[in-house]
Amino acid sequence: MAGIDRQTGRLLDGWDHVEQSVAVIMTTAFGTRMLRRWFGSAVPYLLGRNLTTQTVVQFFTGLIAALEVKELDTGLPREPRFKITKIVPSNASEFRVGALHLEITGIYMPRGHLGDFTPLDTRTIVLRQGKTGAFETVG
């Protein structure tokens, strides 16, 4: 599966495309895409809240739910090439300044979008808040 990098316009394929896809799903609020009202996650609705343990758990729940929901037309998860196995806040001491960096570890299945869920390996996506407050991938 190939796509286009949102920042540079270059072609993306493989793992780079999965990283971007996860970031797009996480940062798109439900109801903001005209023909795909259920695309996205609840995570944008959590931005601006106090960074407590409860809010972090809600972030985790929102991310997992968004990636695991099956599309009605295909029956595949929203991002079928990546299955989350663990989410860890990368540095809990940053909570005091309102920063949240997440390390999302999961199984990478490069042909998952074709229905072949054979795992290739385990990979980690690091999401951090950028200068604008929006999440971006690091890597």
From TrEMBL:
The lineage of its organism: Bacteria, Pseudomonadati, Pseudomonadota, Alphaproteobacteria, Hyphomicrobiales. Gene3D superfamilies: 3.10.450.40. It comes from Rhodoplanes tepidamans. This is Baseplate assembly protein.
